[in-house]
Design brief:
Elements (H helix, E strand, L loop, with lengths): L1 H8 L8 H4 L3 H12 L7 H8 L3 H12 L3 H19 L4 H7 L5 H12 L3 H13 L1
Helix pairs in contact: 3-4, 4-5, 6-8, 6-9
Length: 133
């Protein structure tokens, strides 16, 4: 982890993304919380309280450093994680949905399609074909 932190410190000031987020102590703590508890129903207010900032201060800082608002980042991270689970596990779509914070398979499928461009079932089928090929 120290090597990653040193690399992040060497990034240009205008660099955005989660690696750049490691340079900012508040954003780094927020990222750690989001990644550690992917299924939690986070709000920006709660995340801000956990890292010691107001909701608006965290939202502004996160957006400036990461390049996305916190909840948009969380949705994208959840869908990336879900895509890997769908590709590399035999878990049901509902099991994956629950792991990434969705209580409804339909809501998860809508969010997944919006972010990944295709429904989870199609993603899994096409990914399995790609992995086998």
């Amino acid at each position: 982890m120290e090597a990653v932190r040193r690399y992040a410190e060497s990034l240009p000031e205008d660099q955005t993304g989660w690696l750049a987020g490691l340079k900012d102590p508040y954003v780094a703590r927020a990222l750690a919380l989001l990644h550690a508890r992917l299924s939690k129903a986070w709000s920006v207010g709660e995340l801000g309280r956990r890292v010691g900032l107001s909701r608006s201060a965290l939202a502004d800082r996160f957006n400036q450093v990461i390049g996305l608002p916190p909840m948009q980042y969380l949705t994208q991270w959840r869908m990336q994680f879900a895509a890997q689970e769908l590709r590399h596990s035999n878990k049901s779509i509902m099991q994956v949905a629950l792991e990434v914070g969705y209580d409804s398979e339909a809501a998860f499928a809508r969010a997944f399609k919006r972010v990944m461009g295709k429904p989870p079932v199609t993603w899994r089928r096409q990914s399995a074909g790609t992995a086998a090929g």
